[in-house]
Amino acid sequence: MCGRSSGPGWADTRALNVAAERDVMPQLSGRFVDLRPVATRDYPWLHQLVSHPATGYRWRTRPGTTSEEGLAANLWAGTLAQFICEHRRLGVPVGLVSAYRANIVDGHAYIGVVLDPALRGSGWPLEGLLLFIQYLFGSFRLEKLYAEVLDFVAPTYAPLVGSLLIEEGRLRSHVVLNGSTHDVLLYALYRADWHGVSRRDLARRAVGVSKGQSSVG
User: Does residue 165 belong to any structural domain of this protein?
Assistant: First the structure.
């Protein structure tokens, strides 16, 4: 009777299979951050996050206008994919990344990230956004991703604009905050530009952006 071979040939084949799976499977873990699916246990924390004055104005609604129960429906409306950003060692949530208003036929979608305001100025949480962008370009036929950025935080994107982000539009007096109107800038990230930049350079630029704000999109 013949059993499964455990010789070098079988071991080499198994190693190749593992390597091949690693190449095709989405990478949802980084050095500091893991991306994991949103669970119902996250809703109370997410409700606090989007209700916080420092981050709520970047959300689809304003602080105080969405109940915890209503958040679930609002969270998934028009959403292509989204993940909780979780501290890899501590296992605690630090943010949410989301892709929405996707047009798969024409190959584009909008992205956003909301991070815990207590982590303002820290570069490592934005690793979750980099992982998410890689996931989107690797999993869907998307050629570019859009980010809507308020005018008063746009200067913090200077390290990325021109070489990685392309300004493709401006919606004037589009948002009202605390009685004042603000423009919304539309930045685009193209697949070709994304793949042309090293991960180390992306991480360095992300640190530069994080020093100026706590959330994007």
Answer: no
53 against 109, higher pLDDT:
109
How far apart, in whole angstroms, are the C-alpha atoms of residue 34 and residue 29?
A: 4
Q: Counting Cβ atoms within 10 Å, is residue 183 exposed (0-12), middle (13-18) or buried (19+)?
A: middle
Residue 160 maps to a domain: no
In angstroms, rounded to a whole number, what is the distance separating the alpha carbons of residues 160 and 149?
13
Give φ, ψ of 44 to 5 degrees: -60, -40
Q: Count of domains in the chain?
A: 1
CATH at 82: 3.40.630.30
Residue 74's pLDDT band (cuts 50, 70, 90)? confident
Q: Is 173 exposed, middle or buried (0-12, 13-18, 19+ CB in 10 A)?
A: exposed
CB proximity list for 217: less than 8 A, separation 6 or greater: 58, 98, 110, 111, 112, 113, 114, 147, 148, 149
Question: Which pLDDT score is estimated for 140?
Answer: 96
Contact between 191 and 144 (Cβ < 8 Å)? yes
pTM of the shown model: 0.80
pLDDT at position 191 is 95
- HSE-CB of 161 using CA atoms within 13 angstroms: 14
